Each structure stands twice: as C-alpha cells, then as structure tokens.
Amino acid sequence: xxxxxxxxxxxxxxxxxxxxxxxxxxxxxxxxxxxxxxxxxxxxxxxxxxxxxxxxxxxxxxxxxxxxxxxxxxxxxxxxxxxxxxxxxxxxxxxxxxxxxxxxxxxxxxxxxxxxxxxxxxxxxxxxxxxxxxxxxxxxxxxxxxxxxxxxxxxxxxxxxxxxxxxxxxxxxxxxxxxxxxxxxxxxxxxxxxxxxxxxxxxxxxxxxxxxxxxxxxxxxxxxxxxxxxxxxxxxxxxxxxxxxxxxxxxxxxxxxxxxxxxxxxxxxxxxxxxxxxxxxxxxxxxxxxxxxxxxxxxxxxxxxxxxxxxxxxxxxxxxxxxxxxxxxxxxxxxxxxxxxxxxxxxxxxxxxxxxxxxxxxxxxxxxxxxxxxxxxxxxxxxxxxxxxxxxxxxxxxxxxxxxxxxxxxxxxxxxxxxxxxxxxxxxxxxxxxxxxxxxxx
Length: 442
Prior knowledge:
The chain is built from 17 helices and 22 strands. A hairpin with a 2-residue loop joins strand 5 and strand 6. It folds into 2 domains: 348 residues, no CATH class; 80 residues, 3-Layer(bba) Sandwich (Hepatocyte Growth Factor). Helices cover 36% and strands 22% of the residues.
C-alpha cells in the first residue's frame, strides 16, 4: 500500500478494523473446474436505505474474463453492495461464477457465428473458450495482428477489440431480462457511482422521455457517452434502441466490426433512432477520485468516477458512508469530496517516489532549474500560486491545482499542503444559486 493510501487508511483504521476481513474466493465455471485464489477486502452490507430507488434501475456491469477479480468483488461490496440481484447483470467474455457474481457470456447467441468463426477480433474469445478461462492467456495472445485505428492511435489489444462487441448485446439481453425498469445504467468494474446523487438527479426527469446521459466524446461527427464513467439510458430510449438492434442486427454487427469502440457504436445506434445525448461532463468524471481535477467541478454534484482501484473504492466507500450519515438529505458536491476526502490525504503528503500527481505545466526552461528534484521544488516554492510539482525524465512540472494522482514509474512528486488548503479555502462558498447539475441536451 502506498504512503498516499496508508495515510488515508490510518485515518479510518479504527472503524475499518471492525468490518474488514480476508477470505478466499473459489470459482467454478461450467466449462471446467477452475479455482482462482484471491485475497480481497470484504465489507459487510450497510443499511442500504436507498434500495427502493435501486429497484427502479437496472445496472449493466461490463467486464472481461481477464479482469482482476479483486476489483470485481470489491466493487460488489462497496458501490454496488445495495443493488438487488434482480437489478444487476454482469456482461463478460465467458460464462463464469465469481463467488456470488454470475458473469454472462455476452457473445454466445448474440453475435452472428460467422463473425466468431472468421473475424480475427474473436481469436482471443475462442482461445478462452477452449481453455475455459483467461488463465494461461499470454501477452502475445492479447496482441492483435491488425490493430484498428482508435482515438488514441493504433489499438493492438485484442481484449479491447473484443470488448466493443458487448455494447449492443448488453442492451438487448438486459431488455429481455427487465423491460419495465425506469432507467438502465451501464458501468464498468472500475466505475464508482454515487447512488444517492444519481437518484436525486433522476427524480427530476421522466423516464418516458428519451435520455442518454453522461460525459460525451465525439468521433467522426458522432457524439457518444464515454462508458467508463457510466451512461444512463431512459426506459423510452432503451425500448427504441433495442427494437432497432433486433430489426437491424446484420447491419449493426457490420458497423461494430468496422468501428473501434463499443460506446461509439451505441451512441451511433441511439442517434439513428432519434435519441440525442445529455452532456454532464462535470458530474460523470472520467478520472478517479484521487486523480480528478476538482477545480473544474467544485460546486456541481458528483455522480460517478472512473479508473477507481479496489483499494481506492474501499477508502472512498468509507468516506461516502460517513458523509451521507451526517448529511443524508444533501447532495454531495465535488467540493465536499475535496474537503472531506482529498484534502486530509494531501495534508499527510510531502514527496512520493514513483508517483504522478498530475502536475503538467512544464517549468523545465526556468533559469533556476538544474535537472534535479530539489530545484523543481524551489521553482514551485518561488511561485505563490504553485501547489505541487513533479520531476520526471529530467524535466520539472508544476501546477496551480491540487491533486493526489496515481502510481507512475520514474516520476517523483511533491506537494505543498498548506497551499492546497489555502486553494480550497479561497473558493467562494457554494450557494443555492450555484447549479448542482449542469445537463446540456444535444
């Protein structure tokens, strides 16, 4: 455990020690008896007083057979612990049982057998079927021979290429299971939804209207919701898109094959049936709780985070439980998370090796920089608005915005905690006139 999280863990240790225990997870899959030994953190069920609202939604969790099961189980015991079993389904590459969690083979019976037999994107799927699990899959197995051009360049990961085929079948299967839910919410195993805020927001909307909500991206003139931080689809929109999927399976599977991302495929399919998207980039955060830029969000509500590790999910779940225990009728804004969760961690930091605190302003040309960590610190100290700094590959970076960041080899980070607190205190207090939500329909 890094010193960053060690500080946070010590802060909550007295309560955590009474509720955290270790156990081993044994998995039996239909294609063979495979045992996975995993030591994970277990959190017992809380009061779950939001369960009635959760019964109005259906949660689609997208994962993969090569996913770290520790993260999967931890999510089920933190952000998803109160979701009724009738309101959730896990969509993966293989049919597996992970403890009490049933993973569906999303492709079997949903994707045309011709693609499975002939398309190189299903080579990894067929190998996992033969082996009965992801165990034994090598780095070479994950390497695609013909990488597709994606948003971030050539994508040579077969797992990613396979993942895009899950989105439309997920919607079709889910609607077959539960067609009467008001809202359908798609997340990944490293997404952390803040359910009280989600339901406070949805209470203002009519599920019989068309909604496709989240943080958008744009490719080739098509807007789609970034799946990592979650997407919300209303009952009306879900009904339209599933009817379209069933009536145009052949064309849509060809479109899936020709494109690089499943959330792009879903966005285009919804657009084809007349469903636009609702932009909520500030509420659906594409980064983790410790990596987010809170200066951008501050007075708006937090609905979800992405890239949340198992360790981070446990720590944030403890904070969330305590915060809503004190302020059960309030909406948690980003400033509340910064003051109550981020700042206490920052105040315990000085420097960290192999850590990227997201300082990005290049100060390497400063006349006093001599390619050392110490000179980078001095540059930050000399600038009154600098709150933290980073030294990596012989270069110095500073920033005006306090963040924790994440592990990164060959990067050394430093913080000025007193300035981080001043930065937070200098923000004007959020008032009732400040928008908690910032939806923008397009």
